[in-house]
Amino acid sequence: MNSKTMVSGLLLGASLFVNSATAQEHQHEEHGSHTHGQAVLTFVLEGNEAELAFVTPTANIVGFEHQVKDDSERQLVEKMIADFTSVQWFSFDAQANCTVTGTDISSDLTADRTTKPQHADLNANYTLVCQNPARLQALTLDLAEIAAGVEQVSVQWIVNGEQGAAQWQPDRVTVPLVAQ
């Protein structure tokens, strides 16, 4: 199995986990329970190829989850997409020399819909290449400017066969990507 197939498989597994959690959240939402302030980030590195996936309710970023009602809300959604496309909100150890090679940013707020969403998410997916993956030790998140409503990020990672999980909070911006 080549590394691209392995990364795709790992991401599929992580995606199923995230989608399962999202489905459960949708079920709870119908009963009035909905958790804002939280996000999920999954990072997988195999060889020198990596994928990073970030999911959070749009309320954490733009302050709402309903379809856009006016120009000011449309501008907030456009800024959200632009901010996450610019890839300025996360970084890795400089020695690892990781470069973003692809982005896929989407939201329920930008999709043409026939039904109104009860829960709208931002999905930000990135493909990276790390020239020196052995030097990759930590992930730094800077969400203060673009997602001030995110109070906690559940980070799940797989780096060259090692895996782990951590919680990111604004007062602890760096997440270790090594087994502790």
Descriptive key words:
180 residues, alpha+beta, six-stranded mixed beta sheet, three-stranded antiparallel beta sheet, 9 strands
What does this structure look like?
- The protein has 180 residues and is an alpha+beta fold.
- The protein has helices spanning 3-29, 71-85, and strands at 38-46, 49-57, 90-92, 98-107, 121-130, 138-141, 152-159, 162-168, 174-176.
- The model is unreliable at 5-9 and 11-34 (pLDDT under 50).
- It is 23% helix and 35% strand.
- Strands 4-5-2-1-7-8 form a six-stranded mixed β-sheet, with helices on both faces. The protein has a three-stranded antiparallel β-sheet with strand order 3-6-9, with no helix packed on it.
Mean pLDDT: 82
Order of helices and strands: HEEHEEEEEEE
- Fraction in beta strands: 35-45%
Largest sheet: 6 strands, mixed
Helix content: 10-25%
* Quaternary assembly: single chain
> Structural class, from secondary structure content?
alpha+beta
Shape: elongated
Contiguous uncertain segments of 5+ residues: 5-9, 11-34
| Terminal CA distance | 28 Å
Q: Taking Cα atoms only, what radius of gyration do you get, to the nearest Å?
A: 16 Å
Biggest sheet strand order reads 4-5-2-1-7-8
Question: Helical element count?
Answer: 2
